[in-house]
C-alpha cells in the first residue's frame, strides 16, 4: 500500500509572528520556516505504518513556492521515499479547497491506499483540507486521529472528540487527519539528511491537475490582539465584591 502525506511550509512554531505595518497580512521576511507540526506527526505515522509492514511506500507532497522544497527534503530525511512539489508563485495563498482539489488530482494519479495529513496548519488554522479531500474523492475519513491501525483492507482510527475518544473503522482507501497526541515525530539523522538529497522530487504545477488557485476569499485586515490589562489584587472578599459591583458584574 502507498501512503500519501501532504505537508505545508509554515512559520516555525517557536517564532512569534509579526503583522505587516499596513495590516495586509503576516510579515514573512527573514522569518524561520519549517514543516507544519501536525504534518510532521502525519509523516511519522506513515513511516511507522511502513515499518510495521502495512505500507510499502511513503510519498510526501507540498503545495507552495520553490522554497517548500526544503520542507519536502525534511520529510525525505525523516524516511519518506519520494516527494512531489506543486509549485506556485511566492506569496500566493492557496486556499483549502484549491489544496484539496490538487491533492485529489495527485491521489488519482498515485492511487494511495491511505492519505494522512495534519488536521490543520498552524498559520491559518482552517482545519478544512482533509474533510474537503474526503468529500471530493468520496472516501471515508477519520479526523483528529489519536490512534491509527491498519488491518487488512480497513483502517481503525481512534479520534479525539469533545466527549473523549470515538473509534471508527474505515474501508481503504481512506483519509486520516492527525491530532497532537498520535505520536512523537522523529528527528532526521545526519546520514538520512544526506540521503534525502538524492531521493526523487518531482515538480508540478496546479495547471497539471486542472486546478485554478485564484483566491476566492479576501483578507480585509490583519491585526494583533489587544494587550490584556494587568489583574488587580484585593485584600478581602468585601473589596472583591465592591470591585465587581463597580464593574457592573455583581
Please name the defining characteristics of this protein.
alpha/beta; Rossmann fold; nine-stranded mixed β-sheet; globular; electron transport; electron transfer activity; ETF_b
Short description:
Strand 9 and strand 10 form a beta hairpin. By secondary structure, the protein is an alpha/beta fold.
Tell me what you see in this structure:
This protein is of the alpha/beta class. It has one domain: 3-Layer(aba) Sandwich (Rossmann fold). It contains six helices and 13 strands. The chain has helices at 37-51, 68-78, 96-110, 129-137, 190-196, 237-246; strands at residues 2-6, 9-11, 18-19, 26-27, 33-35, 57-64, 82-87, 114-118, 141-151, 154-161, 164-171, 174-178, 201-204. The strands form three sheets. A nine-stranded mixed β-sheet has the order 11-10-9-12-8-1-6-7-13, with helices on both faces. The protein has a two-stranded antiparallel ribbon with strand order 2-5. A hairpin with a 2-residue loop joins β9 and β10. α3 (96-110) packs across α4. The relative contact order is 0.18. The model has no long low-confidence stretch (mean pLDDT 93).
